[in-house]
Amino acid sequence: MKQFTSVHDIGPLDQALQEAFEIKKNPLSQVDLGKHKTLLMIFFNSSLRTRLSTQKAALNLGMDVIVLDINQGAWKLETERGVVMDGDKPEHILEAIPVMGSYCDIIGVRAFAQLKNKEEDYYEVILNQFIQYSGKPVFSMEAATRHPLQSFADLITIEEYKKSAKPKVVLTWAPHPNALPQAVPNSFAEWMNATDWDFVITHPEGYELAPQFVGKAKVEYDIEKAYKGADFIYAKNWSAYQDPHYGKILSKDMNWTVDSRKMALTNNAFFMHCLPVRRNMIVTDNVIESPRSIVIQEAANRTVSAQVVLKRILEKI
Ligand code: CP
Questions:
Q1: Percentage of the chain surpassing pLDDT 70?
Q2: Domains in the chain, ordered, with CATH?
Q3: Candidate from 51, 236, 275, 295 with most ligand 1 atoms within 8 A of CB, to mutate
Q4: pTM higher than 0.90 for the full model?
């Protein structure tokens, strides 16, 4: 594997899942694979899970790890060509990227959508510059439009907990005080569409995701119909994708909060969320603390998904 930015880079899912479960059983089985190899993790945005789980995965493979928080201690980076750099950004990303590439063997990048210009966000300007100019294999630790390490961990978690061959998986929008990118729901939809599971997306009108991510999913605007018979409820907030409201909050309707009343409509569904989660906005205390909540197991699987990806990249360098 030379890069990992979406489900398209992972190959057959059954093979990826098999590798994931082997790693989960014996995480230190390839502790020499990454010996004398350095992972550089670059964060343009905050992180708890991605930061820790990806480091842990690299350590399990014997790698050395460097972490750089661009906004805490590094020079501010100009990202556009042609700009007269007389402002507060002393370094251009086009020098910074190959310099960073010279210090490592693999690069992980986290760079969220700015939610100001849809075309720029959906072109993945920062991630693509790393791929083009670093000279090193690059993987996404959540970019503007996708969060593939999260979605892979979600897939592993559903595979572990599903009770039937084709579970009903429901992605539900839920309210949040801030405008959030569409990366997690886009990516989750893309990975679910790569399975033969019964996949439903439910959200208020106006929150339609980009068609290339919705794919073959069923979109159900009636939240109660969507919950009915669900085996997994996957909650996430996102801001509007459609013009002219791109990046805007259209609703904070608390009827979309995941609560016990709606969970009672399901097939005793498991509750999932990528975390961090706003309690009593996205999900009630009762639901997230219930035995059907698997958010901690889901987060733990982030190490597994990261380790599969790093292992595959290391095998090719
Ligand atoms: N789910 C996830 O990516 O968590 P962090 O933002 O804490 O890394």
A1: 100
A2: 3-146+302-314 (3.40.50.1370), 150-299 (3.40.50.1370)
A3: 275
A4: yes
